[in-house]
Amino acid sequence: MQSESQLRRDICDIGKRIWTRGYVAANDGNITVRLEDGCLLATPTGVSKGFMTPDMIIKLDPEGNKIAGELNPSSELKMHRAVYAMRPDVKAVVHAHPPTATGFAVAGIPMNKMLLPEVIISLGWVPIAKYGTPSTEELGDVLKELLNHHDAMLLENHGALTVGHNLTNAYFKMETIELAAQISLSACLLGREREISPANVEKLMQVRKKLGVQGMHPALSSTPRMPAAESEQETCNHLSESRLADVVARVTREVLRNIKEMD
Ligand SMILES: [Zn+2]
After folding, report:
1. Residue 20 CA to ligand 1 centre (angstroms)
2. Is the pTM value of this prediction over 0.90?
3. What is the C-alpha separation between 123 and 174, in angstroms, rounded?
4. Helices marked H in the chain
5. pLDDT of 160-212, one tens digit each?
6. 4, 63, 70, 76: which one is catalytic?
7. Which CATH number applies to 4-221?
8. Is 178 a known active-site residue?
9. Where are the domains of the chain?
């Protein structure tokens, strides 16, 4: 494992990347790394993640008490600690609000289509964790079930969370989620998303095995692909029945109004 001073620099570097890429605004987002002795390095609250210096990084003991640093940790540290408690294999956690992926989280549409080989190999599909008030214990509780099967998840009406066996690995999963969300949205705008066949998904899982990719993957625990947060799922090429009825009613009203005006 790298030295603590190197990890402090790495956290600042990743902070700069998430800010430069527009995954966070103002002082949003947080990053933590677990050291070998169980202590955590954490980004401070009230500071833009694009402008951190290594001395701003806070150190906490395994119980979450601050043992070094002038600034204070984010209240979302509870969420990070819940991850570490659940997953001994996880050494880093990244939380951000990447706009397109967060759009899926706001729309209540999980990224559960088999669209891109790289995403299938590394993450499988990305579920939405039910809404929990940021900075409370609620979020930790809702994440617990998902962390058994996933290394990346959307947080309903909030953002995204990725975990990894090191910091770069956790961060790359954040990039993967956002790019996959952008591509999925582009395909939606073009009119359709064509999924990779189950037989080819199976082949990709063999590739994952051969590559020795670390971390959880939903296909390994055969979790069902999650429906949308709302029972009523709506995607680009499928309007729910009630929405369809709505659209039909609106168009009908418009047509009738036009006919009246023509009279
Ligand atoms: Zn947040």
Report:
1. 17
2. no
3. 11
4. 4-20, 77-86, 99-107, 117-122, 137-147, 167-190, 198-211, 241-262
5. 999 999 999 999 999 999 999 999 999 999 999 999 999 999 999 999 999 99
6. 76
7. 3.40.225.10
8. no
9. 4-221, 232-263
